[in-house]
Amino acid sequence: MKKKSLTSKSGRVRELKNKDIRSMRSASEVLPADLVSVLPKRKRGERGHQIKPKKISVTVRYSPEVVEYFKQIGEGWQTRMDDALKEWIKKHPKRAA
After folding, report:
1. Contact (Cβ atoms closer than 8 angstroms) between residue 7 and residue 20
2. Which of 9, 15, 31, 97 is deepest in the core (most CB within 10 A)?
3. Distance between CA 40 and CA 46 in Å, rounded?
4. For residue 94, how many C-alpha atoms fall within 13 Å in the half-sphere facing its CB?
5. d(CA 62, CA 35)
6. How many CB atoms lie within 10 A of CB 31?
7. pLDDT at 47
8. Radius of gyration of the chain from Cα atoms?
9. Tens digit of pLDDT for each residue in 31-88?
10. Is the dihedral of CA 31, 8, 15, 49 positive or negative?
11. Binning pLDDT at 50, 70 and 90, where does residue 97 land?
């Protein structure tokens, strides 16, 4: 039986079925041993090294009119709110106490 290609002629990958996944072989079966030896060793489902987040998640309360104003601007309103706060910081530099 001929295996169905995972990609179309344009190179687009089709949706994988359970049958496709069961027929896949492990990296150690298909790659050279010297390449397999340098691959990260992780358990199944274990995540690799994560990039440190560039922003900090906080819980903060704003007045309804402030939130509504930024939400009305549309998608990306939280980023614009962050930009507005950064601009305020530039205009009001921290002074030594």
Report:
1. no
2. 31
3. 11
4. 3
5. 53
6. 13
7. 78
8. 25
9. 999 999 988 888 878 877 777 778 888 999 999 999 999 999 999 999 999 999 999 9
10. positive
11. low
Spatial neighbors of 62 by CB under 8 A, at least 6 apart, are none
HEC readout, the chain: CCCCCCECCCCCECCCCHHHHHHCCCHHHHCCHHHHCCCCCCCCCCCCCCCCCCCCCCCCCCCHHHHHHHHHHCCCHHHHHHHHHHHHHHHCCCCCC
* For residue 1, pLDDT beyond 70: no
Q: Which residues contact 87 (CB under 8 A, 6 or more apart)?
A: none
Give the span between the Cα atoms of 63 and 45, in whole angstroms.
42
Instruction: Give phi and psi for 13, each to the nearest 5.
Output: -80, 130
